[in-house]
């Protein structure tokens, strides 16, 4: 998978599980770019993303034997990556202003549909990525897990340590936060109260 | 069919599906019935349809933005490397070096000097460990000293500790420290067997009674008229020993009188101690007044600190004293080393060894007092301490030790340390709490030691307080560093600021006269900030990860029959 959805190299995975270093190298080269991109989206700095990528693969090598071959390797890999990144962020949360444990309970204002449409239309992918950097850690992580690695609500709930019923709320709040970041200093600011 | 969650818009006749439900619809997280409800509604409601499309487009924009390959894989990651953090390995070398320096400083500055003094006092052991634990005797019988109250107190303390540090217990390092601490405690507290425990208002070992083994006594008035074939641990208002103790006597009391015989050592922390009987081995005291009566006898050495020492009796070996006023009229078989304000060697006194006195005024020596060698007097003048190169070298070593301590604390408790540093800005609360905790905690610890709460709790609390005095300086250093270099939330820059601030404080504290006052202010301030952080931590908080209430969109909560995620 350099991108999600690509056919999984089951043979390489099977060989890597037996300790074949060549296969492990192939596996790394196959998946490292995607995992780096995942980390790049989830972690605050490029250096963090690089470190996280290496650490995930070091962890992966130890854990590979635990991988259930009947299930999707990609999904499992993203789960490992998400858990690792979230763990790193959680360890650092003291040094971040946005608390990751407390969830804002301020009611969200429903956006004006046409304004939202306009906002989405006018924003580029690059702008979205920049706006993503300004989000709270939980919001950012939730969006990355959902829209980059296509993780299910169950997996997101598991990784973030929240109740499954609450994942939708986290995602919606994250979107509001993102819209606010995108529409900052603009009349297009939509909804979001954070 | 399940009704999707509807909101009434400004127009009361118009109802709309709320954004949350539409998002769940887009995400395919609604059950079939709810989804059909949304689908039907959006066929007739332009507003909801527009919002639904906008949300869907937003999802696609998000996915596209994230999947775009905007950055190539860094060259560093081109191949898998075993040691990802090799570039940071040097830091552990530095940490180890600082640790060695700190331990060396501690050993040479304090332990060696105390070792010498203990040896002079007759403890005579060369084992550092045994010196630290007072040759083991101090700890004997700990296990059996635990009464129900003490166990409860310890459990409360443990519970408090677990609660306070619950967020860190998931970390291996925190657990390792916890278990290592327990291990050390278990290692130093040697269990003893057959120890008897007595407590009450008046506790008495009656005349003719023989206790086989150690005994622990606590009460208002403790009397030992009988015989104890073991050590005695006494905690009372008044302790009278007129019987015979074959082991050591260890006591904390307002007043202690020893009329009988103690075959071992006497160690006491008391207000007044009077010895008219015999102690075969050593006596070590910290008290206000000590009187060695003319009939009193100490077989070996006396080490005493206090206000007034009167030595009329016989001391077999050396005397080491730290007292405002000391009067010697008895016999001392060894040497005398005294430091204090005044020393009087009166008529009838006999000292076989050398006599040395360090004080502010010359000692009074009666002409007929017998001294083994001429008295050595060193006048202590109230002058500024001379500062040689060694002094500055030690300041550097201590600075390094502080930095190491700060590194460890910030690594183990990053959030707590950051909170404590931030609390320094709350000047009023920090100063008030600092004075309260700084002065109150040791008093509480002392009370715990001498009451039923127990030595373990008291000594642990005391050590905690003592460590907090150092931690306080680090916290204030971190705050000062942030004021100078600006705020940061990253770990290493935060450490860098802590080091800068701390070293600056250390330099300022070296300024003669003013430095010690600055240090006092820093310690009070820091202790207050730590206490404030701890207090805030212990306030009831919302359970993590659980929202206090679900999001409240215009239309209220989702209907009860909406299954979030059940497609």
**Tally of discrete structural domains of chain B:** 4
Low-confidence stretches of chain B: 83-89, 124-149, 186-193, 540-567
Instruction: Tell me the strand percentage band of chain B.
Output: 15-25%
Mass-distribution shape of chain A: elongated
Structural class assignment of chain A: mainly alpha
- Give the CATH H-level superfamily of the largest domain in chain A: RNA polymerase sigma factor, region 2, helix turn helix motif
Structural shape of chain B: elongated
Oligomer: heterodimer
Q: Whole-Å distance between the termini of chain A?
A: 36 Å
Biggest sheet statistics of chain A: none
Helix and strand element order of chain A: HHHHHHHHH
Amino-to-carboxy terminus distance of chain B: 15 Å
Spans of chain A of 5+ residues with little confidence (pLDDT < 50)?
1-5, 94-101, 185-194
Q: Class of the largest domain in chain A in CATH?
A: Mainly Alpha
Residue share in helix of chain A:
55-70%
Indicate the mean pLDDT of chain A: 81
How many DSSP-defined strands of chain A?
0
Brief characterization of the structure:
The complex is a heterodimer of chains A (194) and B (567). By secondary structure, chain A is mainly α.
Structure overview:
The complex is a heterodimer of chains A (194) and B (567). Chain A is mainly α. Chain A has two domains: 10-91, Orthogonal Bundle (Rna Polymerase Sigma Factor, Chain: A), CATH 1.10.1740.10; 113-182, Winged helix-like DNA-binding domain superfamily/Winged helix DNA-binding domain (Arc Repressor Mutant, subunit A), CATH 1.10.10. In chain A, 62% of the residues lie in helices and 0% in strands. Chain B folds into four domains: 6-63, no CATH class; 92-129, no CATH class; 196-379, no CATH class; 389-538, no CATH class. Chain B contains 14 helices and 24 strands. Chain B has helices spanning 19-26, 32-44, 46-67, 90-120, 128-132, 142-145, 148-164, 172-188, 389-412, 414-423, 427-450, 455-485, 491-509, 514-538, and strands at residues 6-8, 15-17, 196-205, 210-212, 215-224, 227-229, 232-241, 244-245, 249-258, 261-262, 266-275, 278-279, 283-292, 297-298, 302-311, 314-315, 319-328, 331-332, 336-345, 350-351, 355-359, 364-365, 370-371, 376-379. In chain B, the strands form three sheets. In chain B, strands 3, 5, 7, 9, 11, 13, 15, 17, 19, 21, 22 and 24 form a twelve-stranded parallel beta sheet that branches. A ten-stranded parallel beta sheet of chain B has the order 4-6-8-10-12-14-16-18-20-23, with no helix packed on it. In chain B, strands 1-2 form a two-stranded antiparallel sheet. In chain B, β1 (6-8) and β2 (15-17) form a beta hairpin. In chain B, α1 packs across α3 (46-67), α9 (389-412) packs across α10 and α11 packs across α14. Chain B starts with 5 loop residues before the first strand and ends in a 29-residue tail after the last helix. The interface between A and B is large, with 69 and 64 residues.
